[in-house]
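Predict the structure of DUF2490 domain-containing protein.
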Amino acid sequence: MYRIYISITFFLMLFSTKALAQQDNFNMWLQYTMSAKLTEKYSFTALSQYRSYDLVKDSRLFLVSTYLERKLDNDLYPAIGYMFLVLEPYTSDNHKKIRYENRPFQQLTIKNKIGRTTLLHRYRAEERFLTNPDDFVLRLRYLISLKIPLGKEGGNNPLYGILKNEIRMNVVKEEQFDSNRLTAGLGINVGKKSAIELSFINQLSADDTSNYVLAGFRNTFDWSAKTENN
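Done. Here is the predicted structure for DUF2490 domain-containing protein.
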């Protein structure tokens, strides 16, 4: 598994570097994620994300999102959530326009272990309400994700590998295929509650291809003990 991960990461890095060299823009993706265990059955996740066409200044997208998840038997985790987005796409005459989006969503996550590797399947349905112009899109998403500990079992190596692929399909639009997003990266645990992640993302859409470098920071908390003691 370790050799497979390194090979895929190396291939994606080469592909992303070549694609970025052919484009005039450089896509950056900054993300903060906070997850908190509320009780033995419920957890809460919130995230904020900023994407740009260059390193930082030329904004492409900003979003905030949150969802509440419940743990069921058999490693099933249904959730409901909401996302608000500010989109800044370029028009055909190379001018920007601003679009706002309200996006409620529902999802089901299945979490498993293959040895030390965490395997995750996530199925999501989202209702997209957009402005400028007004539009509604029902979109379905399927994500498969691997989190791969690096180093020997039982060691104190904080590094882990990240592999993801997500396909997104429109339900009520003429163009059903929305995009496919492939991710490969590395994470490092910083203490017991935090992690820093750096990934390369290739996103294939119906009309173009985008490449991102993602820099992310994660916090994980356990508030269940505090809740039970109150």
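The two ends are 44 Å apart (CA to CA).
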